[in-house]
Every structure is written in structure tokens, then in C-alpha cells.
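hey
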């Protein structure tokens, strides 16, 4: 069994060279793309800008103001 990493060349081509591969032989090739690394929660949080939520307001007064505006929106 031969396991190699290859770079995809222009034209979506892959070239594999190995001295153990005899000319004219039929071989089976399996190609898999590496999975994208999973993001940590901290990375996700940094990518999402804060919004007007209790965690993002500058003061308790501003939070209560936003809460009151939300309640008033329910009545309309």
C-alpha cells in the first residue's frame, strides 16, 4: 500500500510518482480532502460581532431601556 500527499495541480489534476509503481500497472486510487479544522467557541465568538443584548450593553439602564422597547414592540 502506498500513501502519499499530493497537491492539486492546475486543471484539477493530481500527479503521483513512486518508483514502486510499475509502468502500465492498473492501480486503485482513493482521494480524500482533509476536513476543515473545527473552530473553538472563542474563535466563533470573536467572529460574531456583539449585538444589542444584555451582554453587550454598556449599562443596566440601557438594558432596561432595550427591554422596555422590546415589550412595547410586543403590544403593536
Amino acid at each position: 500500500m502506498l500513501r502519499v500527499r499530493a497537491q492539486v495541480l492546475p486543471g484539477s489534476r493530481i500527479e503521483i510518482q513512486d518508483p514502486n509503481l510499475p509502468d502500465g500497472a492498473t492501480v486503485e486510487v482513493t482521494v480524500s480532502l482533509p476536513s476543515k479544522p473545527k473552530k473553538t467557541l472563542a474563535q466563533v465568538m470573536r467572529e460574531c460581532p456583539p449585538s444589542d443584548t444584555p451582554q453587550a450593553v454598556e449599562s443596566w439602564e440601557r438594558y432596561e431601556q432595550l427591554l422596555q422597547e422590546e415589550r412595547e414592540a410586543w403590544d403593536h
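The radius of gyration is 28 Å. Helices lie at 41-47, 60-75.
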